[in-house]
């Protein structure tokens, strides 16, 4: 099939050939099954662990003993295993507020900086010990 097109500014006439192309439509059920299979392969669902109630009780005991930094460390260990556990996240926020109200939030920052410094020193020692 030949088709004539109006002249343009660049050429006098343009002629295009169209080939008949047959396209077969796939049934919707087959496409849906393929998409589901691809999604299952690409997305892995991880089941979150339920935190150990004994660890939560330990952190609560540390809070009652006014050992807030240690309690925060216990909560952080719990959150490593169960990062989206709402009650533990709430307790962490409450502990932060309690420390802020009592003016002890600097203790937590100091503790974390000391922990960071010791990790850097350990890495430095490992680096210089193995030339």
If you had to describe this structure to a student in words, what would you say it looks like?
This protein has 131 residues and is mostly helical. It is flat. It has a two-stranded antiparallel ribbon with strand order 1-2. It is built from five helices and two strands, in the order ββααααα. Helix 3 (68-81) runs antiparallel to helix 4. The protein is 63% helix and 6% strand.
Provide mean pLDDT, rounded: 76
From the spread of the alpha carbons, the general shape counts as flat
CATH architecture of the domain at 53-129: Alpha Horseshoe
Spatial arrangement of strands, main beta sheet: 1-2
Class of the domain at 53-129, according to the CATH hierarchy?
Mainly Alpha
Unreliable stretches (pLDDT < 50, length at least 5) are 42-46
Total helical elements? 5
Q: Provide the CATH topology of the domain at 53-129.
A: Serine Threonine Protein Phosphatase 5, Tetratricopeptide repeat
